[in-house]
Write a structure and sequence with these properties.
The chain is α+β, with helices and mostly antiparallel strands. The chain has a single domain (12-45, 57-215), classed as Sortase (Sortase, Chain: A, Beta Barrel). It has helices at 12-42, 85-89, 93-104, 134-137; strands at residues 59-60, 63-71, 76-82, 108-110, 121-126, 156-160, 166-178, 192-200, 207-215. The chain has an eight-stranded mixed β-barrel. Strand 1 (59-60) and strand 2 (63-71) form a beta hairpin. Helix 1 crosses helix 3.
Length: 223
């Protein structure tokens, strides 16, 4: 007599539990690598370094809005939120990373040691290239920087400020660096620089795609 073989099927609830567990592990690893990066970056900025940020009247989810980022070539228009400087000064890395992830749900986020748009120094802005979790997946900004690798040298990026002013930047270089690279986050007051950062390749957190742009225009408003 022939016996019939039966495939042992895993219940759907178990399948979803496994998927959610894997997602949680991957996101925890992503957060930990970002925290390690912040800790390493602290060694590059003197403790006496201090920037006076102008108070922004507009806030989103409690975060000051320092500008609106406009990149017509890749159809990006997003607010630039500012993470709390106090978390940087007190070296509260885990909490700072959590707050930056919170801000990324509502737009892009500037590292707390950044300068304001148009000022001498480095304004360092991060954005998602793909959603790292379900919350980001439900946000319109969950993949705001997914086309960032399309930018080329001489492309223009504009930061529209809350007071109606603006700062134009032209792309000078693009490159890929490892997730642990900290040089791109260094503060440098020899020029007015905008640095855009996102995870790369798209859908992973393996490396970072970096766009470096230099300010080219000074004015109060676009005509």
């Amino acid at each position: 007599m022939k016996t019939k073989s039966h495939n042992q099927r895993v219940p759907r609830t178990v399948q979803w539990a496994i998927i959610l567990a894997i997602t949680a592990i991957l996101f925890s690893f992503f957060l930990w690598t970002e925290v390690l990066l912040l800790r390493s970056l602290a060694q590059l900025v003197p403790e006496t370094h201090s920037l006076q940020h102008a108070a922004a009247d507009e806030r989103i989810a409690g975060f000051p809005v320092i500008a609106s980022l406009s990149i017509p070539k890749i159809n990006v228009r997003a607010p630039v939120l500012l993470a709390e400087r106090t978390l940087w000064d007190t070296r509260s890395w885990e909490l700072l990373e959590e707050r930056m992830q919170d801000a990324l749900v509502y737009g892009t986020v500037a590292y707390p040691h950044s300068v304001l748009p148009g000022q001498q120094g480095n304004l360092i802005v991060a954005g998602h290239s793909s959603p790292p979790d379900l919350r980001a997946g439900e946000s319109q900004f969950g993949d705001v920087f997914h086309r960032l690798p399309e930018l080329q040298v001489s492309d223009v990026i504009t930061l529209l400020q809350p007071d109606g002013g603006y700062a134009d930047y032209v792309v000078r270089s693009t490159k890929v660096v490892s997730a642990s690279e900290t040089e791109v986050l260094k503060q440098d007051h020899r020029g007015s620089i905008l640095t855009l950062i996102t995870c790369y390749p798209i859908g992973t957190t393996k490396d970072r795609w970096i766009v470096t742009a230099e300010r080219i225009d000074v004015g109060s408003s676009h005509q």
